[in-house]
Amino acid sequence: MRFSKAFETIRNNPNVAMRLPHWKDPMNVIKVQCPDKYSKMTHPYLYAESSFGRVPWQNTVPELFSEMWEVVATNEDDEYVNTFAEDYEYDDNIYADCIEEG
After folding, report:
1. What global pTM score does this model have?
2. Which residue from 50, 52, 17, 19 is spatially nearest to 33, judged by alpha carbons?
3. Among the listed residues 47, 24, 43, 46, the one whose alpha carbon sits nearest the alpha carbon of residue 35
4. What is the pLDDT of residues 9-54, one digit of tens each?
């Protein structure tokens, strides 16, 4: 799927992440961080999570234009286990208060 579709899916759901299939580390995913009152950041941002830790995500142009993005979900142990097709529908809208439209 395109970056925009994957991003729309993860931006409102903390239980899913996005990744490209050619990334070697299976734990390497992109997630949304929504700041709370204790955060130093004041706006939501994307971060990369891998077996090495978490860092702010620095995208590349080929990544943004890729049509191979996958949306993955986590299990109760926070392991990424499922890959969803483009028609994945999320149920909750946990980040609605911190991500404003337009």
Report:
1. 0.72
2. 17
3. 43
4. 888 787 789 999 888 776 689 999 888 889 888 888 999 988 888 8
